[in-house]
Write the structure tokens for this entry.
Amino acid sequence: MTQDEKQRRITRSPVRPALGALSGLLAGFAALAVAELVAAGVRPQAGPVIAVGGAAIDRTPTAVKDWAIRNFGTNDKLVLQLGILAALVLFAIALGLFALRYRRSGAAGVLLFGVVGASAALSRPDSTGLTDALPSVVGAVVAAVLLFFLVGRLRIRTPAPHDAGSAEAEAQEDSPREPGWDRRGFVIMATAAAAASAGTGLLGRALSGSSSREAVASRADVVLPAPASPADAVPKGAQLRVRDVSAFTTPNKDFYRVDTALVVPKVDATTWKLRIHGKGVTRPVTLTFDDLLRRELIERDITLTCVSNEVGGPYVGNARWIGVRLADLLAECGVEPPSKGGRADQLVTRSVDGMTIGSPVEDVMDGRDALLAVGMNGEPLPFAHGFPVRMLVPGLFGYVSACKWIQDIELTSFDDYDAYWVKRKWARQAPVKTQSRIDTPKPFARPEAGSVMVAGVAWAQHRGIDKVEVRVDDGPWQEARLAAEDSRDTWRQWSFDWRATKGGHTLTVRATDRTGEVQTDKRTGTVPDGASGRHSVVVTVE
């Protein structure tokens, strides 16, 4: 076989393209690992995956966000992160293959990774400045250099002619006598790069975790004071003894979580501060966590509902909260509600991750138990639900009231400022709608004929539930039995003893609140101010 034939055979071999793709993957791995290490020194949220993911969430159309929440639930962020990593894998493979033919251009293409990551980090609302671009930029530069040298080992070397006895022959003694690529050099470099990247990533993860450990320790040290105004005991009979009905008090681990944070912020309570300022605030104040704990605390059972909850959906839960009455705190700062001549009609809260939420000042100060909560179901707030402090307002959907990881409260007006979700076409004001849900039987269940217990929950926070009715197929509405009421700010369980006959049936439920409003049968989606309609399930009685 001639030298030219050998060279053509090597060129056409699938091994080099495969190793080119591997080179791209190793470069991508190095980029992420180095970025993780640099982000540990800047701030973890500046890492490229988190920054790009956050920017993607901000720019995703509302309909797509709703679809993701509906189909993936609280795993929507994990799905997004996996999608970003999958895209990076494909990008890295493509660059590796491209770099086999165009070495310098391929390596330079890695810098696109840095540009995208840096741009995303700097565009985040919680960006602290140009240093947020460093993780992506440094990671990309390291990856570009690594890819350049890796594909260099894959370049086919043409053997130089050897003329015995000539001076050039001695100089060419180290030149390859056969066409090929540097197998040994590639294996050594690829192995070293993989090991170094793994070590770098682990070190970055460990350093990033150190700040989290301080936050975890600060939560472990919190001892919640006894509330000056404790909640009444949950009435007997508030929890029905019916299988598959939601627990009256939702355990913390089961409480729904819907937010835009790709990584749950872990805030150190010892360094946390809350600033209250803005229009109509005559006495601005900055409070620490200990300042809040020294104030008079109240304890209340309050049901929260997410605006992304479809009719019959799972994004509603009830908990016992401990916190400071927000209206009292605002009054001490000189704030008056609009009905009493106050200058501000919107209260804008800001989270440590840059989220902004706008709430009506009138609702916050109308006497309801709007809270800056520090405790949930007898313990400090879980990190996923806002530790160290979150806000909640009974009767309002979470996107206009329930700011987690809160750090700033600004008094302003709806005309002057649109909060995060309002900019994305959601309504400025959104009271919770009167809703009910069938928990049992489940859709497409096959109960036996005879007595079948139909049961579920209904809610109309700050108005209360007055009546629940069930309809079988197109029959008349029949009143269900209501469980004992805790308060008008909590959901209420209900049950209906159905004498089921064989065949297929549709069960529908509706609720009536204390104002006399009957749950509408008009179906609407979640945008712009929450879903409406009546929940129904189809069953087959055997």
